[in-house]
Here is the input.
Amino acid sequence: MKIFIAPEAELASMVADRYEALLKAKPDAILGGATGSTPLGLYAELVRRNKAGKISFKDVKTFNLDEYVGLDGSHDQSYRYFMNKNLFEQIDIDIANTHVPSGIVTENCADYDKEIEAAGGIDLQLLGIGVDGHIGFNEPGTPLDSLTHVVELEESTRVANSRFFKSIDEVPTHAVTMGIKTVMNARAIILMAIGKSKAEIIAKTLQGPICTEVPASILQLHPFVEFYLDPEAAALLK
Ligand code: GLP
Here is the structure.
């Protein structure tokens, strides 16, 4: 486990360096995508490097972590919409190679794991973290051997994410998410966290006991995990 602490503006560029190195070594890499405010700076930097001709996504495949149940890709709060707008439409990726779990057809969501496996497995999975320690939408209590599945969202998650909706009533109650095992199967993982609201959960995740109550704490067991934190998110680390 490696921990990097730097101001927010530098983090995006440090993580983009990791993507650049990976794509040079493996132009057809399989990337695991994340949503939320945290990766926005990184995505802007990847777009910039793509436009500058430094990196290409033309042979890349992506698999996103999660999606809200009930929202299709045309809904402006769906994670498919977020990814198209903030990354895919701005880079040279083939949109057919981008995957986001369906929030509409959720019956066979574990097939998502089979698709990931058939593609060769995820080379680099990006993660943010929820204030309750969720990764993707794996809320506290999620079994560590879980594959892609439907979850009921915690009230704290709905409240935190309601800032993007007109009101809390519009925030979906359920989501589809890669499971914890799906995430842990990735060959390398990068978790980014920014801001003081993440300080407590970052300390528990990195230095607390590994437990299902803090889903992200399982990452301590991953052989290639890197944490990129700003000083505020890292403030409670010992
Ligand atoms: C959502 C997503 C997570 C993300 C989290 C944190 O709940 N499902 O994947 O990590 O939000 O979001 P933010 O980066 O906006 O703090």
